[in-house]
Input
Amino acid sequence: MNSDKYDRNVSLQCPTCGATQFEYDEAVESDHAKVRCVSCDREMTKEELIHENSENLDEHMREIGEQALDDVANETKKSLKKAFSGNKNIKFK
Ligand SMILES: [Zn+2]
Output
């Protein structure tokens, strides 16, 4: 499964100010590429940003799972549904 096609669905948040807009060099396809928060100018690597957002990413992965039902196996679908049923208070923007 190619996870790259779901990247656009993940909103990473700046760990300093919570903004979701970042500037980065699209030519650099590396986790060590620098990204810069357009709101507070904090610079970090993509890897750091993803690490800081790891909890959010877990939630997003469930959301992506819902959107990708056609792509996943039935067993995975069932376990995702189960995971959702216990998290009714989670809201996605
Ligand atoms: Zn920021």
Remarks:
- The beta strands are 22-24, 34-37, 43-45.
